[in-house]
Amino acid sequence: MSAAxxxxxxxxxxxxxxxxxxxxxxxxxxxxxxxxxxxxxxNPKEGALQGLLKMKSLMDAGYAQGVLPPQQRxxxxxxxxxxxxxxxxxxxxxxxxEAPQLLRAVCSASSMWTANAGTITPSMDAxxxxxxxxxxxxxxxxxxxxxPQTTGRVLQAIFRDEQHFAHHPVxxxxxxxxxxxxxxxxxxxxxxxxxGVHLFVYGRQAFGGEREPTRFPARQTLExxxxxxxxxxxxxxxxxxxxxxxxxxxxxxxxxxxxxxGNGPVLLYHExxxxxxxxxxxxxxxxxxxxxxxxxxxxxxxxxxxxxxSYLFNSQLLSNPxxxxxxxxxxxxxxxxxxxxxxxxxxxxxxxxxxxxxxxxVKQSMRNGGGPACxxxxxxxxxxxxxxxxxxxxxxxxxxxxxxxxxNRHYRDLLAPDDxxxxxxxxxxxxxxxxxxxxxxxxxxxxxxxx
Length: 451
Fold this sequence. Notes:
Elements: H1 3-7, E1 10-16, H2 32-36, H3 44-60, E2 64-68, H4 76-81, H5 88-98, H6 100-106, E3 118-121, E4 131-135, H7 142-145, H8 148-158, E5 165-167, E6 185-188, E7 197-202, H9 222-231, E8 239-243, H10 246-250, E9 260-263, E10 266-270, H11 277-287, E11 293-297, H12 304-310, E12 316-319, E13 325-330, H13 332-335, H14 337-348, E14 354-360, H15 363-366, E15 376-381, H16 383-387, H17 397-410, H18 423-440
Helix pairs in contact: 3-17, 5-6, 17-18
């Protein structure tokens, strides 16, 4: 690709809209924030507006920003598949009485964390010069296992042009191929338009291997990461497979993006991110065309407790035209003295491209264990690929205003777990999402099995 072609390539962050049933049910085992906030009253309207405000601020700063719709919730079809029958009200009432955890699962708004939506390979890395997509199977937890079919429909609706985009099937939903998407995948390169090296991070090997965590489950397998790489046509020279440190998983680092974030040639990571830290860095250096810039945060500077509580590494690292980078961190980073001091003294003052830190309030998401990086799916696109997108999904002032008005019309500002059995909530959510598909012009991506 020519220099002009490289410069026209941009990373678009597609953020997930927080859904109308956003609630705190504590469903995610191993996610400390989710588990510790289970049972609290949420504010879906505030959560959606916080997410939109983050998107708009980045758009205003010149970054390419997209939007992905939430899933249809409650998933009454899933409850019917599990044997609940009768009217919609009957199904909800029986689930609330007989299996309240199932009701909470089918109401989860976890699709807001689109870092888990799938794994993306940009066209400059693929053998057929198309952008490749594989939705994550998310089989580690029932509430997320419900997402892949709709995720696949959404991605195929937006990235529809077969000349530019290729879609692959979800991996088999078995423990051997447990796949959590881009939360365990980082692409490193000189610039976005240059060929990259793909760092896949896994928690365990399904068919025997190294150490595994003992307290919390490892959600990503090596076998799943290898399968996605094969689907996308990535070669051995383009990939690095590294095991996440089991002690980090046991401390609440359920995805790699809770302990490391990469962008361009920069890999910002905690000392406890990888089981074989030096081996991982050496392989990246050997395979990257541009020099790797590792930014290591030692354990003595930021404890595992502070890393998990602040989500320092679940921040967005964004490229600027002048070669510098901006780090978008959650407000919780300011609340931890050691973390904020590390940002000022180690990151901003260090010998690396990070020149600016922006603090964003995404507290509604954070309480369920998702920071700025969880809320976005990174898709590197050329000008032609951006032109080929279907729907009204790239954020503009007008779309922001329309989405904000949509949230204010349809969302509740208080939602307790006991409210999930309310049949009116299901109707409110259905009405909102029906309108959203028209607003975003993405077509019939929902099953709409209420009625």
